[in-house]
Every structure is written in C-alpha cells, then in structure tokens.
Amino acid sequence: MKIALLGYGKMGKIIEKIAMDRKHEIVLKIDQDNISDLTADNLQKADVAIEFSTPHTALTNITECLNAGVPVVVGTTGWHDSLPAIKQRCENEGLAFIYGTNFSVGVNIFFHVNKMLAKIMNGYSYYDVQVEEIHHTQKLDSPSGTAITIAEGIIDNLDAKKQWINVLTAEGLEGTDNATADELLIESYRIDSVPGTHTVIYDSEVDSIEFKHTAHNRNGFALGAVMAAEWIQNKKGFYSVEDMFDFTLNNK
Ligand SMILES: NC(=O)c1ccc[n+]([C@@H]2O[C@H](COP(=O)([O-])OP(=O)(O)OC[C@H]3O[C@@H](n4cnc5c(N)ncnc54)[C@H](O)[C@@H]3O)[C@@H](O)[C@H]2O)c1
Hints:
By secondary structure, the chain is of the alpha/beta class.
C-alpha cells in the first residue's frame, strides 16, 4: 500500500516506521515546511493518506484529500465540530474517511467496556462519576479527544449525566469540582512526557471503582492508524475507528 503522511511530528514518525515494518511505502510526507507539496497530483500517488497534524491544520488537509478522491485516516483531535460536513461530503460524493480520537486497540476496548459499565451504574445512583486524563505538556487541546469520547460514552448510557464540563488542573493541585449533579467533570492534567492516561472513577461514600487505561508509548496509536489505512483503502463511506472492531461477546 502507498501512503501519504500528513503531519510528520511525533506520531507521523512512528506511523512511518510501523507502516514500513508492515511492508507499506511512504510516497509523500507533508509537514509545515513543505505544505505547497500538498497537491492533488502528489496525493493521488498514494492509496491512502494518514493525517496527524494539528487541530488548526487538519481540516484543510482533509479537504485536500477529499478533493483528490484519496481515502483518509484522521487521528488529529480538536477539530471535530466539522465532522457533520465531512460526513455529508463522503455520503454525497462516495468518498472514504475514517477518524478516531484514539486508534489504539486497548483504548477501543476501554471505550466499549466504559459504555457497558455506565449502563450497569444506572442501577446504583449513590455513585457519582468523573473522568481524569493526563497528557504531555505539548498537547494543544484540552480535554483530550479520547476523554471526550469516554465522556460521550457515559452520557449516552448513564441517565444521571447530561453534558460534560472540563477543568484543566495544574500538576500537584487538586481539581475544583464545580460540576452540577447532571454534569460530568473531565479533569485534565498536563505532565511532562505522559503519552496518555485516562481514568473513569465512580465514587461513593463507601468505596470507589476506578477503570483506567495507561498508554506506555505512542506505538499503539500508530499501529491502529496503519491498520485503519489497510482497512479503509478499498472502502467508501464515513467511518469512525469503532467500526473497525467487533467486541461482541460470543462466550468462546
Ligand atoms: N487518534 C489518535 O490515536 C491520536 C494519538 C496521538 C495523538 N493524536 C493527535 O494527533 C495530532 C498529532 O500529534 P503529535 O503528537 O504527532 O503532534 P506533534 O506536534 O508532534 O506533530 C504535529 C506535526 O504537524 C506539523 N504540521 C503543522 N502544520 C501542518 C500542516 N499544515 N500540514 C501538515 N503538518 C503540519 C507540525 O510541524 C508537527 O510536526 C494531535 O492532534 C494529537 O492530539 C491522536
């Protein structure tokens, strides 16, 4: 498979290595110094594009891929207000697009179990719930896209919570919890060199239940993005990373 990499930062470099290990070829690399190379002609040399740039540049890059008719995998977070417009274009024009706030297999298992847990907790209203996320200090968006997906999974399945609010809390300080009963607090911490930790905490007077995912490095995100590129290359339509996985319980 021939791949165009849009964004050659921390993630782009790991994706390149994993893609080459899986015998794919990188035919285009775009970063801020060579944006003028992002042309339809250059993009069309690739079977699929993988976009991991910045919240401010992702939409322009995605639009270039769609204009060129090249399937695109998008990992960049912090621009998702534009998803409905992209969905409409994919449906109207038969284009291929897959996005995910987190491409790691482990996190997608976490997303699934998080929804099941929220459903169970409807029966136990004396627990309150909050989400905590920790990322490296260079992260541009807050809360993390992954934390938003976790919060949406809770809100869609736990009757008591209607919307999320976010508090960005300095290292070493306790977060201030001004959430009302129907608001789900997402507490964000920025600590040097943490690739990503997310915890869902159900707390009551008698005990706490903590459900946690810790990324040890960025390889899981990158492998998932390359798997998404392999998965989408001959498809058409608008997909989220959850469409790639089947976590049906089959008692095997
Ligand atoms: N979905 C996931 O699984 C997942 C996992 C990790 C990170 N992310 C997200 O991916 C994005 C990138 O993360 P990162 O850690 O590689 O960040 P990074 O800051 O290391 O890399 C971003 C790169 O984009 C480049 N860039 C700037 N303008 C550009 C443009 N117009 N076109 C192309 N590239 C441009 C920057 O120069 C930089 O090299 C972030 O939004 C991050 O939150 C998603």
